[in-house]
Amino acid sequence: MEVNHVLADEKLIIALISAAVALLLGQLVVYIKYRINKCQTKRALFKELQDIETSLESAIAITRHKLEMNVHMIHSGTMPLPVGSYIFDNYYKEVVSELSSSQRRSYQLIHHYVKDINASIENLTKKNIEASEAYFLNPSSIDVKHRKLWFDRLASFYEVLCLTQWHISYHKENRRNPELPYNGPVYDDYVAFQQDIQLALKELIEEAKKKSAEEVAEQKTRL
C-alpha cells in the first residue's frame, strides 16, 4: 500500500515537473519570438532609411532640374513624389523602447524632416499646377517676380532635402550612437555642409546659364 502511495506521489511530482517545464518552454518560445520580432522590426526601420535616401536622391535631381529650368524661364509640371516611411509610421512605437536616446532623437528628427518634405511637395505641387495653368492661359502672366519667388521656394525645398540626406547618412555611419553634438568636428562638418548647399545653388545657377534653354528643357531626370 505504501509502495503504491509512493509511486503515485512520484507520478504526481513528475507530472507537475513536466507541466512546469512545458510552461517554461512555452514562455521561452514566446519570448524568443518576441525578441526576434523586435530585432526584425529594428532592422526594417534602419533599412527603410536607405529607401528614404533613394527617394531623396530622386527628389534632389528633379528639384535641381526645376531650378535650372527656372533660370531659363521655362516651366514644367514635374514634381518629386512623396517620400514613403511606412515602417516608421506603423512600427516605430513597437521598438522605441529598444532604442537608445540618441537613436530615438535621430529617427524622430529624420522623420520630422520627411513629414515636412511631404507637406512641401503637396504645397509645391498645388502651386506648380496653378502656375502651369496660368502660364498656359497667358505666358506673360508669369513674370520675373513670380519666377524669383518660385526659385526661392524650390531653393528652400532643395536645402531641406539635402539636410535630410545628411542626417540619414550620419545615422547610417553611426548606427549605434547617432548623437549630434552642438560643437566639435561633427558640428563643424554639419555647418560646412550647410554652406556647401548654398555654394551648390550658386554653381547650379552659373552652370545653367552656360546651357541653352533647349538643352535644359530636354534634360531627363529620374522619378
List the helices and strands and how they pair.
Elements (H helix, E strand, L loop, with lengths): L1 H70 L14 H10 L5 H37 L6 H30 L11 H26 L2 H6 L5
Helix pairs in contact: 1-2, 1-4, 1-5, 3-4, 4-5
Question: How would you characterize the overall build of this protein?
Answer:
With 223 residues, the chain is mainly alpha-helical. It has one domain (49-218). The protein contains six helices and no strands. Helix 1 (2-71) runs antiparallel to helix 4 (144-173), helix 1 packs across helix 5 (185-210) and helix 3 (101-137) runs antiparallel to helix 4 (144-173). The model has no long low-confidence stretch (mean pLDDT 87).
Provide the number of structural domains: 1
| Main sheet: strands, sense, barrel | none
Treating each run of at least 4 consecutive H or I residues as one helix, how many helices?
Answer: 6
User: What is the CA-atom radius of gyration, in angstroms?
Assistant: 28 Å
Order of helices and strands: HHHHHH
Estimate percent helicity.
over 70%
Overall 3D geometry?
A: elongated
Keywords: Membrane, Transmembrane, Transmembrane helix
Transmembrane segments: 12-32
Protein name: DUF4760 domain-containing protein
